Description:
By secondary structure, this protein is mainly alpha-helical. The chain has helices at residues 2-24, 44-69, 74-108, 114-145, 148-172. It contains five helices and no strands. The two termini are 17 Å apart.
Amino acid sequence: MKLKLSRVYLILGLSLVGMLTALTVGVMAQSEEDIPSEFPEPDPGNLRAFVELVRSDIRTQKTYILAQNMELTNDEAVEFWPLQREYNLELNRLYDRRFALIRKFLSTYDSITDDQACQLADEALSLEESRTQLKREYFTEFSKVITPRKAVRFFQIENQINAAIDLRIAATLPLIK
Length: 177
């Protein structure tokens, strides 16, 4: 069981490192054979600190990318950036749920029952619905402080970044057995 938990933490760690890598150098697939079969047991507290560090780096990268591409006037920027930070806080709550779901998946993927698979699928689909709903709500809010065209641009950039992160995570996760 200790080895299985170690593998779970390694895969989670690789997924989180992949998020930052995807933003800066692109996405590269990683096979399960590339993951060592034995390694020291990680400290869950350190893993959480690592997640927060990666999030901080991603936020910095996203802010830079947005600042370079949004073409905001000074008046728009004054209202846009606080709203964008609020959106990111809400998005991070969804990522916390996703992190928990990935941990749950990784602890059972090699012995999951049909009932567990249905529950996992339901939770994953619910998470995607929540993310879509969040985008709908914030599109309306962003359109009040910047033009709808710029709000669409924001979500184009946001979707490109999230697609890179999603692809990296998916490439790192093992297939269900």
